[in-house]
Amino acid sequence: MSQQALDLRRSMQIVRRHKLLVGIVLAVGIAGGAAYAVYKPPMLTSTALVALQEPVSSQQANGTNTSGTDTFTATQEIVAGSYPVLLDALPNVRPSMSLNDLRHNIQVGSPSSDIISVAAKGKNAADAEATATALANSYIDYVSSSRSAVGRVQAQLLQSANVATGQAPIEQTIVYALLGGLGGALIGIIAALAFGRNDRRVRQRDEIANSIGIPVLASVPVAHPSAAAGWMKLFENYRPTAVHSWQLHTALQQLGMPRPGFGRPAYDGNGSSLYDNDRASRYDGDGGPFALLVLSLSSDPGALALGPQLAAFGASQGISTSLVIGPQQDAAATATLRTACAVPPSEASMRQGMLRVIACDEGGADIPPDTALVIVVAVMDSRAPKMPDTMRTNATVVGVSAGAATAEQLALAAVAAGGDGREVTGILVADPDPSDQTTGRIPHLARPARRGLPNRLRGVVTEIKR
What we know:
Layout: H1 8-17, H2 19-39, E1 44-53, H3 56-63, H4 71-80, H5 83-89, H6 99-104, E2 106-112, E3 115-122, H7 125-143, E4 154-159, H8 169-198, H9 205-212, E5 216-220, H10 228-237, H11 242-254, E6 290-297, H12 306-316, E7 321-325, H13 335-341, H14 350-353, E8 355-359, E9 373-380, E10 395-401, H15 407-419, E11 424-430
Parallel strand pairs: 5-11, 6-9, 6-10, 7-8, 7-9, 10-11
Antiparallel strand pairs: 1-3, 1-4, 2-3
């Protein structure tokens, strides 16, 4: 998977699979943006205006100036932001700050040739207004005194610092939260694509089928019981939808469940059981039940429910079914399921008539004689797969959840089953990816035998005589 190119469709699939990661990073980004807005509230701005009376000498100089600039006003802007003016205003600014901070929080301009504006920023309106007023008064005092480096200038306060304006705190919080969310979403998507590209687990049905060269027979959603009560509820209430019901029915047909012996009791005409004490024999299909082994990995708890659901489905179709939980390579994986098997069914239970659950500690199992379908559940250790000592069956399938195992793990499981003389003939997929449009190499059913057409017709004239 890591070697495949990431096109737009595949990228969207990866992001959708990692939507929890993207959502978490998105939420962190929104929270971070909002927190920053609270920690750095919006600055409000207040402006004071100072009216100037230009000296006659300056008027004459400007009159001969052909550059189009007002040198007098430009000079006064520089003076208003100079070191002496800021230093004199510093004791009256709010809140107390350094000279360098004050320099960054003020802005001097000139709306007209005889007016300069002094704007100051503050965290609240009172601070901004106080700083703007202090700076305007300091400038007036400076240019009106003999200390002025540009000579005395007549200046007076034209407009006191107006009411401070700026972005409302709630507006800034929303803006910063949106920006933080956008950044978080971008980081989450990049992380999801990075994780998805390096993820070797197979998710699509075609990928799962190609991993071991065996077709997917059915793909259905599964329950995820975590306790014995959950398994008992599954036994009693599992009812697949029409689509999934048909898939399970078709899967059993493709596996070769014999139609002539389907539903017949598991004993011969003399009343002898078709099972031996060590391991169940390979059924001949004429009178014994059809037995199916559902094999899964210990690292894939979702696939464990495939066998019980298939057994519950068979019972719901009026088929006398036995679910066998035998010895497991990983006993912890089926502990709760074995506990549920030990609970006797109620008189009104579906299990009382059509579904029997059996937990055994040896290879063989005491199968009731009227059983028509046997589902055997086996779990392998995903790290070192080895076939558990469970009863023999007619067919073996591998159960796997989409995105729960790698191709290597599935191949090792198939090899372990083959080493025990069990040929894996199909795959059942639990919880398929909703975006998966592949089929999993649906096998072609054998066509019914048809009588060949005769190669010679009698009683029909094939020549024309002239």
